[in-house]
Specification:
The protein is of the alpha/beta class. The protein contains 13 helices and 9 strands. Strands 4-3-2-1-6-5 form a 6-stranded parallel β-sheet. The protein is elongated. Strand 2, helix 3 (47-63) and strand 3 (68-71) form a beta-alpha-beta unit.
């Protein structure tokens, strides 16, 4: 199954979120509104009840050709014939789960998708999607809980999220050209740092003693080779080797001005 992770719904069946509505009804409305993946999460449910609910959700998802993923519970996934299991850091290892679920089409076997989660709502989803992308990579989707599960109209909430995810944020068009260029540069930072790590360029640092160790550690962390040389006369020879020069002179003194 080719999975669209763009609108990833994580369920919440607590009374404070659902009220007097049924979990199955809210999920169906959300799926009809455009949710592309459903993850059934219930941390405290009884096994038999969870299997029954999972089968209901599986039926809904199957009608719309989207996957159902079960949170943590491999047994519930197996009993409900779900497409996958979401595993936390303290859950069973992936290799063990795959052996158990040989007849279930586990997701992410050939590709590891990237989905953002945590406090995502209608106000920030466009910024999250836009700011998380680079020139070569972008988010596969966003995972939401209350933005849909707690909505008065889950279908409309899903439709709105889907539209926002596919639309660039309005502030991009309103940015002056210089700010747009700055935004594009920020998006290139991961690629730039990756290239630095591959080439290990020389980084000549002329810094005050307060930040010397910090500057050296930053240079090492991004993959460059730092040289901490504060004598201005050495800069001529070091510049001939290529790389970069970082100047952080600190407090201005006559000697510092002459040196730098």
């Amino acid at each position: 199954m080719l999975v669209d992770y763009s609108v990833y719904l994580v369920t919440d069946g607590t009374p404070g979120i659902l009220g007097d509505r049924s979990l199955g009804g809210v999920v169906r409305s959300a799926v009809e509104g455009g949710v592309t993946v459903v993850q059934y999460r219930d941390k405290h449910g009884e096994t038999a009840a969870m299997i029954e609910t999972a089968k209901t959700l599986r039926s809904t998802c199957e009608q719309y050709s989207i996957p159902l993923i079960i949170n943590d519970r491999v047994d519930v996934a197996l009993a409900s014939n779900a497409q996958g299991v979401h595993l936390g850091q303290t859950d069973m290892g992936i290799a063990g789960v795959r052996k158990i679920l040989e007849r279930i089409s586990t997701l992410g076997r050939n590709k590891v998708p990237t989905v953002a989660i945590g406090g995502i709502n209608f106000k920030n989803v466009q910024r999250v999607v836009y700011m998380a992308q680079t020139e070569h990579q972008k988010l596969d989707g966003v995972a939401v809980v209350s933005a849909i599960m707690a909505a008065e109209d889950p279908m409309l909430a899903a439709q709105t999220l889907r539209r926002l995810i596919k639309t660039p944020p309005a502030f991009i068009a309103a940015l002056p050209e210089k700010e747009q260029q700055a935004t594009q540069l920020i998006r290139r930072v991961p690629d730039i740092i990756r290239e630095l790590g591959q080439k290990h360029p020389l980084c000549h640092n002329m810094t005050n003693l307060v930040v010397q160790n910090f500057a050296a550690n930053v240079a090492l962390a991004i993959g460059s080779s730092p040289i901490m040389a504060n004598n201005g006369d050495e800069a001529f020879e070091l510049a001939a080797l290529g790389g970069a020069l970082v100047i952080n002179m600190g407090s201005l003194t006559p000697e510092a001005i002459s040196n730098y």
